[in-house]
Amino acid sequence: DIQMTQSPSSLSASIGDGVTIKCRASQSIGNSLNWYQQRPGKAPNLLIYGGSSLRGGVPSRFSGSGSGTDFTLTISSLQPEDLATYYCQQSYTSPLTFGGGTKVEIK
Amino acid sequence: EVQLVQSGVEVKEPGESLKISCKGSGYSFASYWIGWVRQMPGKGLEWMGVIFPADSDTRYNPSFQGLVTISVDKSISTAYLQWSSLKASDSAMYYCVRPRAAAVDYFDYWGQGTLVTVSS
To answer: What is the pLDDT of residue B43?
Structure first.
C-alpha cells in the first residue's frame, strides 16, 4: 500500500495568516493527490483534486501544488470557517489511502 | 443536485448482523461507482471498497476483504454495507462516497455518515 504522511499533525494560526500543510507519498503518485476538508462533526468535503485543481465553489484562498511524492496545501489567508481537519488522499492505485490528517485551529 | 443520503444511527451488540444503506439521487446512479469510507472515533479516513451498480463489479481494500460485504440495488439507487457478525472494533462513522469517474479516483460527493456503535 502507498503510505501518505502529513505534517504537521496540528497547527494553530491567526485569522489572515498563511497556512501550509504538507503531504508525502511513500512512492511516486504523479499528480494523483487530492485534498479534503472535514469540519467538526461533518463529512469530509473535496477541496482540490489532481494535485492542484480547485473544485468549483471552493474559495480561491485554497491552493495545491506538488507532484511525484511531495505535495502542499496552502491557505493564503486563514478564515474562521477554515477550522477543520485536512486530509490528503492518493488516487494513483488501489487501495486508496489517506494521510493521517492535519488539524487546523484558530489562535 | 447530487445527494447521497445514508441510513441512521445504529446501536448493536457484538455478534449481531447489520446492513446500512446509502441512497443516491440527482445523477445516473448505475453509471458511477459508489463506495464506503470508515472513520473510527477520533481517527483518520480508511477506504473500504467500491461497487459499480450497473454490473455489481466490486473492489475491496484487502484490509476489509472478508470482513464486510458491499452490495447494491440499482432499482432503488441504493448501496449497502453489511456485517454478518459485528465486533466492538467495528464502532465507527461510515461514509458513503461517490468516486468521480473510476473505481480508483477522488471522491466528489460524500454522504452525511452513519454512526455505528457496537457495545454489550
So the answer is: 97
* Residue B92: predicted pLDDT: 98
Distance from CA of A45 to the nearest CA of B (A): 7
Q: Considering only CA atoms, which of A52, A1, A47, A46 is closest in space to residue A25?
A: A1
In this prediction, residue A57 has a pLDDT band, given cuts at 50, 70 and 90, of very high
Q: Which residues on chain A are in Cβ contact (under 8 Å) with B63? A: 95
**Whether the Cβ atoms of residue A94 and residue B104 lie closer than 8 Å to each other:** yes
Q: Do B104 and A55 touch (CB under 8 A)?
A: no
Amino acid at B81: L
Return the pLDDT at A89. 98
Strands (E), B2-111: 3-6, 10-12, 18-25, 34-39, 45-52, 57-60, 69-73, 78-83, 92-99, 107-110
Q: A17 to chain B nearest CA, in Å? A: 26
Task: Give me the residue label for grid cell 466528489.
Answer: B108
Share the mean pLDDT of chain A.
98
- Nearest-by-Cβ selection for A34 from B59, B106, B110: B106
Contact (CB<8Å) A96/B47? yes
Distance from CA of A15 to the nearest CA of B (A): 25
Chain A nearest-CA residue for B62: A95
Q: 3-class SS at B29?
A: helix
pLDDT per 10-residue tile (average), chain B, 120 residues = 98 98 98 98 97 97 98 98 98 97 95 98
pLDDT of B28:
97
